[in-house]
Design brief:
Layout lengths: L1 E4 L4 E4 L25 H12 L15 H20 L2 H6 L3 H16 L5 H7 L5 H13 L3 E3 L15 E3 L1 H26 L1
Antiparallel strand pairs: 1-2, 3-4
Length: 194
C-alpha cells in the first residue's frame, strides 16, 4: 500500500506497490480531489497546475476545485460554440480565424466611429494578403454581414472610401454572445469559489 501525505494531500491506493525514495509529492497548494489517482497522474496534475496562470484569474480558486474548474471551462467552451451555431452571422465569422480577425478590426472601428476600409484592414492584418482581406469583406457584404456605410463619427465626404461596418444583426449576435460568455464566467465564479 502506498500512502502519500501532505498538508492537503492524502492519497491511499491499495493497488500501487511502488517503492521510489526519490518520489516526493509535496505542495502546500495541491489538493487532489480524486483519491484514486496513480502517482504518475498526481505528478502530471501537479505539473499542470504549477504551470497555470492562476494569478490572472479575477478570483482565487481552491486547489481542490481545479478539476471542477477544468470541467466548467470545457463545458463553457461547448456552450459558447453551440450558442453561435444558431446565429448565421457569428457562424460565418467563426468559420475561420481570418474572418474573425477581419470582423474584429471592423467591429472595433465601428464602435470607435473610425473609417475602416479594405486597404486599412489589410494594413492592420499584415499576415494576410490584400486579396484575402478583400475576398472576406466582399463575401461578408454579399451575405449582408458587413455593410458599406459611412463611419459614425467621421465627417469625410471622400466618395472613394468605401467604409465597412458590421450589420445590425451581426453586432447584436456578437454582443449577446459576449454577454452570455461574461454571465457564464460570473456564474462559474460564484458556483466554484463560494
Amino acid at each position: 500500500m502506498t500512502i502519500i501525505k501532505d498538508q492537503n494531500l492524502d492519497i491511499k491506493d491499495k493497488h500501487l506497490n511502488i517503492e521510489d525514495k526519490h518520489l516526493n509529492i509535496e505542495d502546500k497548494h495541491l489538493n487532489i480531489k480524486d483519491k484514486h489517482l496513480s502517482i504518475e497522474d498526481q505528478k502530471r496534475q501537479k505539473n499542470i497546475i504549477s504551470k497555470l496562470n492562476l494569478n490572472k484569474l479575477p478570483f482565487n480558486i481552491p486547489p481542490e476545485k481545479m478539476c471542477d474548474l477544468n470541467l466548467e471551462m470545457a463545458r463553457h467552451s461547448k456552450m459558447v460554440l453551440k450558442y453561435e451555431e444558431d446565429k448565421s452571422g457569428l457562424k460565418w465569422v467563426f468559420s475561420s480565424i481570418k474572418k474573425y480577425k477581419v470582423f474584429l478590426v471592423i467591429f472595433e472601428a465601428n464602435e470607435l466611429g473610425h473609417e475602416i476600409y479594405k486597404e486599412k484592414i489589410s494594413s492592420k492584418l499584415p499576415e494576410y494578403s490584400y486579396k484575402t482581406i478583400a475576398q472576406i469583406i466582399d463575401e461578408g457584404i454579399s451575405k449582408n454581414f458587413f455593410l458599406n456605410l459611412r463611419a459614425r463619427l467621421c465627417k469625410s465626404k471622400d466618395l472613394k472610401i468605401r467604409n465597412v461596418r458590421p450589420s445590425e444583426n451581426l453586432i447584436i449576435e456578437f454582443i449577446n454572445w459576449k454577454i452570455e460568455l461574461l454571465s457564464s464566467v460570473m456564474k462559474f465564479q460564484k458556483d466554484l469559489v463560494n
